[in-house]
Every structure is written in structure tokens, then in C-alpha cells.
Design a protein that fits this description.
This protein is mostly beta strands. It has strands at residues 12-14, 20-28, 38-49, 59-65, 67-72, 75-80, 84-87, 93-97, 103-109. It contains no helices and 9 strands. The model has no long low-confidence stretch (mean pLDDT 95).
């Protein structure tokens, strides 16, 4: 079991390999006893983005703040607080911040996706 707060976690910053201004915090994973999935929080600075990429696992996303875009399988989709998405495996995708405030979202993946 774990009860905590995101502000108490140290994140991993990504600013290379196609990513710009992205911070990832692992909230819950195998260390807390949830062996099937990993819950992460991503924060994307204004003007930032993840790399365009694909991988063999799916993930689900829930936007907790800000505005942005999800490029998925050749199409752009607007994101805002409350938006959610199921990103299927092996499809090219990218998250980008199109607003002036930080874009934040929860992303849940199987352990191999972390």
C-alpha cells in the first residue's frame, strides 16, 4: 500500500531523443505491489512534447491539467483537462503542449512500458 503526493516524488526529465520539456514521475508500480500496471504522471512544459514513437504495448491516458495535442495514427486530437485516450499498441503517437500552462496527464502502462 502507498498513500503519498506527487510533490514528494522526484521526476525524470526528458529533453533529448525527440522529447522536449517532459517530466515523468512514477506514482505506483511493482514496488507498491501493483504488478500488472504502472501509473505515471507526465508534465509537459509550454512548447514541449514527447517524441513521435510507437511501441508494442497500449496505454491509457487521463489529462489532469492544461491543454495540448495527441498526434495518433496520423491525426491530431485536441486535449484539455478531463480528456482521456486509449492509445493502442504499435501506432505512432506524440503528446505536445499547445498552451501556455503545463500539460499534465496520468498514463497507465503494463510494466514493460515503463
Amino acid at each position: 500500500m502507498i498513500i503519498s503526493h506527487q510533490d514528494l516524488l522526484e521526476g525524470q526529465k526528458f529533453d533529448s531523443n525527440g522529447a522536449k520539456g517532459v517530466l515523468r514521475k512514477v506514482l505506483i508500480c511493482q514496488n507498491e505491489g501493483w504488478n500488472d500496471y504502472v501509473m505515471r504522471l507526465f508534465e509537459v512544459e509550454a512548447g514541449g512534447h514527447s517524441p513521435k514513437h510507437s511501441h508494442p504495448w497500449p496505454h491509457i491516458v487521463y489529462v489532469t491539467g492544461g491543454t495540448g495535442n495527441l498526434y495518433f495514427d496520423g491525426k491530431d486530437h485536441e486535449l484539455r483537462s478531463g480528456s482521456f485516450a486509449y492509445v493502442t499498441e504499435n501506432k505512432e503517437h506524440q503528446f505536445s503542449n499547445r498552451g501556455s500552462e503545463k500539460l499534465s496527464f496520468i498514463c497507465i502502462v503494463p510494466p514493460e512500458g515503463n
